[in-house]
Protein 1
Amino acid sequence: MRTSVAARRAVLAAAAILLVAACGGGGGGGEAAIPPFWLRSGIVVADFDGNGRADVAVAATYIAGPPPHPGYLDVYLQSAPRQFAAPVQYPVGPDPWGLSAGDFDGDGRLDLVAASPATEAPQPNVASNSGAIALLQQDAARAGVFLPALRTATGGAANDAAIAELTGDARADVIVADGVLVNGRALLLEQSGAQPGSLLAPVPIPIGAGRGSGELAVGDLNGDGRADIVLAASDGAAIVLQNGSGGFDPAQVLPAGVLPQGVAIADIDGDGRADIVVANAGNAPAGGTGGASVTLLRQTSPGQFAATAIAVADGARRVAIADLNGDGVPDAAVISLVYQSQSTPSRISVLLQLPAARGQLAVAAVYDGPFNGNFIAIGDADGDGLNDLFVNDGPVVLLQRAATPGTFDPPRALR
């Protein structure tokens, strides 16, 4: 059964409010009498089955009453250019939000991890600490097919999770962004050495008292060959460097814009050092306008970052990095959504590198997205060698125009 855009936007707004309540300790609220519907969140574009074509995974929640709601991952495999099979649906934990891919078991195939901020009904004026993750490993005998989810309680509000080797033992682990402000931490779930494929109890990584986080990215920031962590924290980009003893250095927080929401790591300027890109929602979540931006944190020398702010559409939520005009250098796409606006679609800001100034990004165009778009990913949907934009709501794809690289068609359904 379909329901109105306004009703779906209202529920998405309620979900965002619950996350904020979890971060700060608020809660409570009534229930909306609306028909059941699907709400999609985190999205990943990658070649899951090894056929050289981009596939799509998206987190999906079935809403038919008060939370918690049943959650799933929908996996769309691409067999030919723009030919996506009907999604295979895998049950995961309640209300999945963040989603990412990585090789957890070391078999050379991508696995998936979904994060659920809360698995229990919210309580008035109580910070949620019922977060969990669901880890889906690929079936060794069937490429692109996933085994039943390994579900693990994390505590906190598990807004996002990533797969990476973070303890120096050559086994992949899972790192979680905890959104609860009073917890002030990320959470590390180490893969067991005694029982490979299983996760040990979560261990907190402090990022500062009163600091929650909504998304994380993993990459080698200091060139030592070890994966480090960057979190879109409530007051900036929180950097946690892995050290040589299997632990982590104290967190460093770099100022970003107003209300950081999303984060990515990439070498934007081609100097061999990783840079950080942060999507900042601006004033829209508080009912205002303006202030949304992308903060580009260029690493100008080891451990030193220079910040540049670039204004984007209100309510910036997530940022993805890839070459978006075929010139061989990374660009950025930002998805923006103002939850309170029930008649305005999401907006997609495409930021291209300036041809004469490597490392500088500028908004080249802003496109209307689907009404509830708040997650974005990049990949080649039609086999033309140009990257396209994928958005969770639908899901939909905006195809890059081959005749005018760097420009994109309106959203169309994935299949």
Note: Confidence is low (pLDDT under 50) at residues 1-7, 17-32.
Protein 2
Amino acid sequence: MCGIIGLVGHTPVNQALYDGLTVLQHRGQDAAGIVTCEGDRMYLRKDNGLVKDVFHTRHMMNLKGNIGIGHVRYPTAGSFSSAEAQPFYVNSPYGIALAHNGNLTNADDLKRDLFLEDRRHINTNSDSEILLNIFAHELQKTVSSKLDITADNIFDAIENVHKRCKGAYAVVAMITGRGIVAFRDPYGIRPVAFGKRETEKGIEHVVASESVAIDSLDFEMVRDIEPGEAIFINNEGELSSRQCAENPKLSPCIFEHVYFARPDSIMDGVSVYKARLRMGDYLAKTILKQFPNHDIDVVLPIPDTSRTSALECSYTLGVKYSEGFIKNRYIARTFIMPGQKQRKKSVRQKLNAIELEFKGKNVLLVDDSIVRGTTSQQIIQMARDAGANKVYFASAAPPVRYPNVYGIDMPAADELIGHGRDVDEIAKEIGADRLFFQDLDDLIEAVRKKVPKIKEFDTSVFNGEYVTGGINADYLQHIESLRNDKSREGNDADNEVIEIHNNA
């Protein structure tokens, strides 16, 4: 799970890219990168760290040009080395830089084909570099010379990308001297949208993972990119689009609405905020069915993502809502952090209980989901330490029982507290007096209620049904070995802005 952005403007885009990445920072705190283009030269800066730490004044001054793309990353495979920060680039043909959100499920096969058949070398363990080289190779096949590239050439290449690549991918790529292309996998698993604005010099366009980045940069949201669709925006700001997949089917990842996306975003026509309100309402109705004579005194959210659901849950239950935890905003999301020891340590650093809201009360703690259970277990203990009489726990999502293969860091089934355990066993494991989970059908209805065009979601983390198919036990074992903490150890490098010359 990462954040991508692309801009085609009539004035320098470095500051806008920086600002957009800052708005998308919640989608990845491991690394950040920006590449811009001026004439036939690209300027790249990327490194590990938050956006504010990766880009300093000297870097911003050197990121020249009116066109560029950016990326914020947290890794699901490979290493944490800054060499795997995005965007990636290749010099042939034209000079192409690419940023990617998602995960290719046939990356190993593609890497072998690139080496044996396409004669292209991959320098990292990132599937994003594989995707870049597949696109570059297919684009090279569609044009007769470096001078006659057209939108149709680009769309033809993306048609072949769709035929070769399996999995989830939302992509923004920059072709030196030509423009920006963005495309989405045939299932639309990962989100991406585009917007525009009128300026005195002409129309400018932006592509971003979430509508909130489009809004924050004062662009008008146009629409989401459809599953399998590609758009191309040339240097003059002219936009063209084409459906490039044979059988596209909208099946977005429902976990985006549960956890990842900002509540002020709209994805595929769904308001994340409204969806989370409905999650809270449905969750409360489940609690009332299972615990009609409840003795809950107060509903308390686990900040921040669960606030919306917890508020509506308290309203439906007819129970007081209050804030019981104060969050340190300078600690990153815990289940994204590498290493179980670091995750355990960070929970106490991230949250502090307000004793007055717990002492002598029966409290219902509401969280967006329970993944590994590390956070839930420690928060429940914090509530008891603050004097709670009974601690009930509710999840706005069903139990997470299966690994995610589409770009979320849930690699190993045995790391998931819901895998192989029933609700009572999970409750005992995390130390709750009683535990409530959202029903999967209710979750689906909560998200799609106002948008009937979405016929299905990727709900694989809850039911083990992977929308792209082809996921078996051998593959799940393989990604587990790739994503363990040891495999992601790497050395960081101090990278400055790199100037890339292209003979386009």
Note: The two ends are 33 Å apart (CA to CA).
